[in-house]
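FORM 12-B: Structure-to-Sequence Request
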């Protein structure tokens, strides 16, 4: 999707093309009634920030290189105050800058956004700079309902898929960095991954949702489907987790192979979540043509684009990226592996996104069954010992008492209040006669301080702000 670089209410103040006097304007300027300074600027397409900072003729600028899978091109945003850094991945409609309110940065003209679009990469003035409005034709504003649908998914859950190639990664550190799920390899054909159990225990100790995956080999590569499944079962042992079928071997596969491995896992009592593949493979490398992926469960697709390096959230192309709406085998992806260079816990790893919440992902993995070793919030109390439950109850009551004050029946006879209710005698009473709670007391103290400041200001002939500043200065000197 391509979106407008400014909010609704802006209009073109100077278009692309020749100006009076013969000068050619290689961009489009946007302004609005009432002034444009400090209004927000948004990326028109996903891409990687190339420059953000000082630029001759612009004061400051932001430039973004857009990958081919979102339409390509190179956009330039001039006369702005950048809010992004070079190398950062941004999504379409993401805030990247503010319009600089200082007219000195644009030749003395009123503050505005100057937008350029270059056909491939940055180009000097000439035929490779094209009219931005031809790119923006029909584009929604970033604050419009067209983007609200993507935003309604909320922040995605990020996850990793790991094998012995990531031996040594701390998935507990990954969880602290925001990773919510891990999909762990059991086998490649009949080759048994030696890190399945250690990765699984590490991920589940960190509270991640977990599943397994098997890299499916064509029997022509030397092992039968059943032998592959047997090897996977041996690796899992008593730590069986739902299975994803990795469909991408260079030897090619038929739909019968995928169907057979699913049936063999299910016959052994293993839930199959779905299939993993990439677009060209599923569309062209499976014998008999593109199969219906719904037969195998959910769809997990790999599509990397430019595959940038960086933190998962910074390189994520966004909830409204076209890949989310690209059906593969009559089904849109539930999980998108959008790169293989995400920096997580000190490793460069495959990175995945899920547009939904934890409960929805759990349902895809486990079909509504509670995952092993991962108690839900509903049975949290059941996971506590009797002593821990008593301690939790005691702490909860103690916190309530501190905030609300003791109950009347807990006060000495001389302090009981005929007005009833909870509160602290030490904090005084409300106009209705009830004792103040801690919040009441703080509120009244704040009112008293304001009144005292107003009196002091009146007596000294100064202002409340001046008194505050004087107090702050004396405190800094201590």
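FORM 12-B RESPONSE
SEQUENCE OUT:
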């Amino acid at each position: 999707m391509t979106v407008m670089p400014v909010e609704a209410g802006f209009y073109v103040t100077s278009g692309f093309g020749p100006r009076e006097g013969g000068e050619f304007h290689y961009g489009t300027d946007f302004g609005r009634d009432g002034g444009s300074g400090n209004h927000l600027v948004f990326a028109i397409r996903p891409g990687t920030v190339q420059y953000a900072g000082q630029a001759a003729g612009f004061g400051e600028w932001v430039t973004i290189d857009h990958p081919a899978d979102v339409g390509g091109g190179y956009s330039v945003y001039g006369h702005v105050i950048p809010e992004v850094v070079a190398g950062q991945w941004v999504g379409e409609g993401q805030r990247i800058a503010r319009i600089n309110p200082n007219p000195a940065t644009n030749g003395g003209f009123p503050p505005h956004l100057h937008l350029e679009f270059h056909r491939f990469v940055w180009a000097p003035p000439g035929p490779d700079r094209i009219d931005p409005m031809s790119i923006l034709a029909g584009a929604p504003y970033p604050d419009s309902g067209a983007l609200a649908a993507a935003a309604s998914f909320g922040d995605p859950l990020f996850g990793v898929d790991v094998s012995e190639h990531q031996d040594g990664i701390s998935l507990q550190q990954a969880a602290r960095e925001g990773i919510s799920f891990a999909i762990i390899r059991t086998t490649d054909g009949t080759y048994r991954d030696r890190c399945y159990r250690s990765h699984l225990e590490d991920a589940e100790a960190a509270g991640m949702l977990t599943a397994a995956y098997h890299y499916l080999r064509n029997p022509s590569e030397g092992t039968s489907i059943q032998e592959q499944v047997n090897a996977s079962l041996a690796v899992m042992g008593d730590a069986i987790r739902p299975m994803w079928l990795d469909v991408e071997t260079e030897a090619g596969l038929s739909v019968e192979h995928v169907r057979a491995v699913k049936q063999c896992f299910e016959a052994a009592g293993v839930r199959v979540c779905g299939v993993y593949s990439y677009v060209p493979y599923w569309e062209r490398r499976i014998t008999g043509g593109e199969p219906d992926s719904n037969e195998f469960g959910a769809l997990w697709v790999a599509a990397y684009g430019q595959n940038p390096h960086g933190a998962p959230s910074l390189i994520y192309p966004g909830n409204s990226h076209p890949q989310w709406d690209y059906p593969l085998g009559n089904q849109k992806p539930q999980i998108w592996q959008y790169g293989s260079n995400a920096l997580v816990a000190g490793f460069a790893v495959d990175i995945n996104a899920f547009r939904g919440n934890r409960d929805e992902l759990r349902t895809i993995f486990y079909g509504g069954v509670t995952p092993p070793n991962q108690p839900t919030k509903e049975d949290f109390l059941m996971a506590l010992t009797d002593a821990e439950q008593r301690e939790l109850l005691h702490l909860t009551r103690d916190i309530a008492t501190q905030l609300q004050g003791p109950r009347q029946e807990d006060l000495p006879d001389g302090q009981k209040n005929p007005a009833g209710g909870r509160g602290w005698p030490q904090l005084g009473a409300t106009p209705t006669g009830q004792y103040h709670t801690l919040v009441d007391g703080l509120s009244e103290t704040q009112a008293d301080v304001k009144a005292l400041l107003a009196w002091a200001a009146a007596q000294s002939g100064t202002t409340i702000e001046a008194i505050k500043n004087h107090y702050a200065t004396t405190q800094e000197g201590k």
